[in-house]
Amino acid sequence: MADMEEVVVEANCRPEETRATHPFRSSSNHYAQVIPITTSPPPTREEDGADWGGGELNPQDAWLPITESRNGNTISATFHLICSGIGIQALLLPLAFATLVMFPNLNSIAWVSFIGAITAVGYCTLIWALSIGKGRPSDISYNPPEMDSNMDRFGGIMNSIGIIFITFRGHNVMLEIQGTLPSSSKHPSHKQMWRGVTVSYALIAMCLLPLAIAGFWAYGNKIPSSYGKILSSVSNFHGHKTSTFVLGLICIIIVINCLSTFQIYSMVVFDNLEFKYTSRKSKPCTRWLRMVFRFLFGGVAFFAAVALPFLPLLAPLIGGMTLPLAYAYPCFIWIAIKKPQPRSGKWCINMGLGCLGLVLSVVLVVAAIWNLTDKGLNANFFKP
């Protein structure tokens, strides 16, 4: 999207009070929702000299877990973005929801995001380094697999594009992360946030690009077509050359990263639950009620992971349906808020990207439905 920094600024600069929620479901089956940050109306002339005190939160925002604390900084925003932006797309929740009660707001889990960021960079580096260091199998091929029809080939291409788009998923919680930063009229939060975005996505690119290139170079089309099987490729092709300790270490690091990432995405759900409660009761949630919300959501998520282990197979379909929330609607929202001159450069870029996102969403959904119809879906309930 053109002028990404200006879009981030809008989270803190809209004069009227807004609160719109847009559900998004990533390929990891975690719900994430883009929630514009609610701010108070601009100060009157008498209040121009007043200290905003870390952002002059709307009273209700001070009760919610995302905007309760404005003590974040560029470093904490960077950790949040890296942790949410890199991750094995999996449901791994047995221990996650039990620890959520300890963290009252998003800013309080900055150290969890730090651990998640370190583990994400660590396992990506270990996987591509092992793939290159152990060499390639002797009979690999880089030719595309044989397809029975042109439609099958088209569906495979569209699914591949969908995987690439869904991989960059962390920006769906970008506004929530910005809500942890202090903001004032003299020092708006978008400056720190922009530095965090720049650093984090540079690191994310440095992790994902080598992983994709090295994985394709090492295994070619021998990587299983089922979901998230590059780890299986490392174990199958290089397991006899790699110590059990190294393979076990990679698995442990991935487990830690999944638990850390779940904290960030689940905080968005908790914020919405508490927003509905505070809207009705006009008071903050008590500690015991907050515990109930979090244990309930964690239990539901864990039950879904156990009962519906085939959900990752639906990732292309779900991702295609929710893709406009991340790649199309923000462009149209920017045009509606900034109101650039029609047919100007920025107007054309955002309108073009928004329309491209909608078209791509339709194509991905059609391709996903075609693949499911052609290959079928093994709905193995309660059989992970």
Automatic annotation (TrEMBL):
Transcription regulation keyword on record: no
| Pfam families reported for this sequence | Aa_trans
Q: What GO CC annotations are associated with the protein? A: endomembrane system
Q: Name one GO molecular function term.
A: symporter activity
Domain Amino acid transporter transmembrane spans what residues? 94-371
Q: Where in the cell is it found?
A: Endomembrane system
Protein name stated in the entry: Lysine histidine transporter-like 8
- Species source reads Prunus yedoensis var. nudiflora
